[in-house]
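Following up on my earlier message about MRU. Here are the inputs again, as you asked, copied directly from the submission form:
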Amino acid sequence: MTRPVSVRWTGDAAGHLDILDQTLLPGGIVWRECRDVDSVVEAIRSLRVRGAPAIGIAGAYGLVVAAGEAVRGGCDASRARAHVLARGEELASARPTAVNLRWAVERSLVKIAPLAADTSAETLAEVLLAEARTIHDEDRRLCAAIGRHGAAVLPTGNILTHCNTGALATGGDGTALGVITAAWDSGRRFEVFADETRPLFQGARLTAWELVERGIPVTVLVDAAAGHLLATGRIAACIVGADRITANGDTANKIGTYALAVLAAAHGVPFFVAAPSSTFDLALTDGGDIPIEERGAAEVLAPLGVQAAPAGARAFNPAFDVTPARLIRAIITEHGVIEPVTPARIAAVLSGPPPR
Ligand code: MRU
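Thanks, got it. Here's what our run produced:
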């Protein structure tokens, strides 16, 4: 099976961004054409494109869309640059928790900063497209390296994962799911248990879809069944992705990750995180400073559009939570495996050689 692609650029620098609408999966494959920044921001906010690396890639292409707006609007050089910077801020702040989004936008903007003041909007678009393609290609390679490193340390036996961290969430094979598929492709055999991942069901809708398409056995469970599954000894390891990892290893990821890590610790099951270096925010000392996105009530009160709670009930809907470093056995990055998860080890591994 060919790996699903979450975003693609069509045409040259005057082209457009196509986003695979993940809100419709697994029901159908629908691509959304984004020809203005508003549609890219909307796609990120509504999780048509989602997953930390994938929204970073979408944000980088979104800057090309911004430059295209400046071209079509007939902006002179200085207005074009101001437009790209302003639209860049809108893109970077579309979702607050995954640091990859701001990282990718800022990395792209660094490429246009040294260009002469009279650089045209057309040239800005070309430079930004080259950088977006580089970020996209790089992510493909980083996923492969994470898969390689992770498969080497993943224990034998069944695996429990949370949310979706596969091809849909990245530019390559995925982070945590990339480790799982790399282990499978190396000939190991096991079953994957996927938390459904309420309230938006990324596990049931997306992870299960990716695994079924690849022919890897997957069993979906309600999030609340994870404790029983772990208690009955059927899981050798848990592995999840990340949206932001601070200097001490505290890790923000999809809501429910923290509960899963506590359960894993209670049952002596190793808990792994897999993420590229772009997910680390070393400017933050610990997870207490990570901004946690709060989303609308309808996602909880009317899951999948079906009203479940009575009118008048309120909702608590944080999209992410923070798992303290002490609950994480190891963090798998493209540079290698961080174990134990300590500030010194994080700094040492991340400053090591990048993947070949
Ligand atoms: O709200 P989402 O679906 O964007 O949340 C995604 C996650 O929490 C993933 O685990 C994380 O971004 C890592 S994706 C490789």
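One observation from looking it over: The chain is about 40% helix and 15% strand. Hope that helps, and feel free to reply on this thread.
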